[in-house]
Amino acid sequence: MCFREDALAERHIVISGGCGAIGLGVVRKLTEHGASVTVNDIIDSKTADTRLRNAGVNLEKTVYVQADLTRTKDVEKLIAKARCRFGPIHTALCHVGIVVPKPLLEFSDDEWTQTMQVNVKTAFLLGKASAQAMLEDDIAGHLIFTISWVADVPWPEIGPYNASKAAMKQLMRSFARELADKGIRANAVAPGIVSVGLAKHQWDTDPSYRARAQKAIPLGEMQPLDSVANAFLFLCSPAADYMTGSVLLVDGGCSLYPMD
Ligand SMILES: NC(=O)c1ccc[n+]([C@@H]2O[C@H](COP(=O)([O-])OP(=O)(O)OC[C@H]3O[C@@H](n4cnc5c(N)ncnc54)[C@H](O)[C@@H]3O)[C@@H](O)[C@H]2O)c1
Fold first, then answer.
1. pLDDT attached to residue 211
2. Measuring from each residue's beta carbon to the nearest atom of ligand 1, which residues come in under 6 Å?
3. Is the pLDDT score of 259 beyond 70?
4. Which domains does the chain have, with CATH numbers?
């Protein structure tokens, strides 16, 4: 991708779930372009450092904060540590997400609650706390939510996940609407079926998923991680400064489904 190496110089970006499969690729891309990144995840610091190092991330450009973002107190801790280490926050990536793959009729109450808490509640708490910090610091900031093409397409056997991503989309649009006059923007990235992380695990372990997914990708192959990272690079850069309330769909045509 043809962005200058200093495209994100002086930018401080916070990411939740940043030690996951996609998060690591995003952190690497952002730091390679000059950003300082506060990386959150729920895992311990030692494991996080190992994952970041193995992913080729320059650790001097990052600080890691272990926190469970379903808890308000942990979100406050994340924001405080982030500002303490790298100063005012310019962009917050509400990125953490989980999927429990099973038919709707087999989904338990607890699984529903967990999906909504980890996907939607963390996005609300981090979006809100980041926007409050941006206002206090007089920063024209940016909230970016990781949703999915399934926010609009009811992909089978992940119903509550589909619903959580649709909720995040509308949450993003609500932040965009309410905060535009305060100079804060909100957008979303909607990846397709990515060749790492949640989808890759299903692809490798569930033959029926694999058969369906193969049919559903018009471009014919699982989505390269770099294509997701590039979408974040663009949205985090000044090139996207006039965007708010938008979904950047980077899904290889998956949302053109059904194919047959
Ligand atoms: N993999 C795909 O194909 C795909 C496609 C579209 C969208 N997405 C979205 O991209 C995001 C990342 O997905 P991934 O595939 O990298 O998943 P992943 O499971 O590899 O990463 C998620 C990370 O979130 C962390 N986490 C879980 N609960 C947390 C909590 N309460 N607080 C803080 N961190 C927590 C996990 O430890 C993990 O490192 C998710 O929002 C997912 O919905 C993924």
1. 87
2. 16-17, 19-23, 40-43, 68-70, 95-98, 118, 122, 146, 148, 191, 193-194, 197-199
3. no
4. 12-191+224-249 (3.40.50.720)
Beta carbons of 189 and 199 less than 8 angstroms apart: no
Rg of the chain in Å (alpha carbons): 17
Residues 189 and 246: their CA atoms lie apart, in Å, by 9
**How far does residue 175's CA lie from ligand 1's centre (Å)?**
21
Residue with tokens 């709707």: 104
Mean of the per-residue pLDDT values for the chain?
96
Centroid of ligand 1 to alpha carbon of 236 (angstroms): 19
**Tens digit of pLDDT for each residue in 215-230?**
899 998 999 999 999 9
How many beta carbons lie within 10 A of that of residue 147, not counting itself?
27
CA of 239 to the centre of ligand 1 (A): 26
